[in-house]
């Protein structure tokens, strides 16, 4: 398999970028593919999460990157893997760094919440940072409240109107995710004992499958 680099981004903080990289990365790695996850955010959340899970229980390799000067080494490091996921910072001050990550990517996944206030900034972000790269991309709807399904419907209508591709699968709000770090698990691995953890896992499994089929044709 040719190496594919997938970057998860959104200028907005707290929209599930790190969670998506870890859970999709763990899901894909569990299928036997060689996966490298790059923590490209100086906050280092992903690194700490992996430390908490333990490298032995982490099915992917992890590398740290926070200096665009090191980006030149990515294709070389990536060559040993089937898939590389890059987690990016959610601060508008670091968008030059994110733009550099996008340049080395084969596919871009924009995680977005579905509340009304999140939609326009996500659309603007995509048009300003993602579209100019001419790389294939899609939005992944995250932290969707199942008690307000109309929000997901409205978000899908908004992005359809804006001509932005959106994954069919979406990630709902599950308590298992904010506890994953302290529990030292990836929810997608199926070991979380939290309520609805199985359902939470299945949603990232579906998103990972959709991602794999999107990049299979590249
Ligand atoms: N589907 C979900 N359901 C419930 N909580 C979630 C979900 N996804 C993420 N979270 C929680 O929301 C918080 C922010 O998620 P995460 O760190 O993945 O976002 P981020 O976009 O990487 O944030 P930052 O911009 O700060 O890097 C975390 O506490 C995480 O556990
Ligand atoms: Mg993050």
TrEMBL record:
Pfam families: CbiA (PF01656). Residues 6-173 form the CobQ/CobB/MinD/ParA nucleotide binding domain. SUPFAM superfamilies: P-loop containing nucleoside triphosphate hydrolases (SSF52540). Keywords: Plasmid. Coiled coil: none annotated. InterPro entries: CobQ/CobB/MinD/ParA_Nub-bd_dom, DNA_Partitioning_ATPase, P-loop_NTPase. PANTHER family: COBYRINIC ACID AC-DIAMIDE SYNTHASE (PTHR13696:SF99), P-LOOP CONTAINING NUCLEOSIDE TRIPHOSPHATE HYDROLASE (PTHR13696). This is CobQ/CobB/MinD/ParA nucleotide binding domain-containing protein. It comes from Brachybacterium avium.
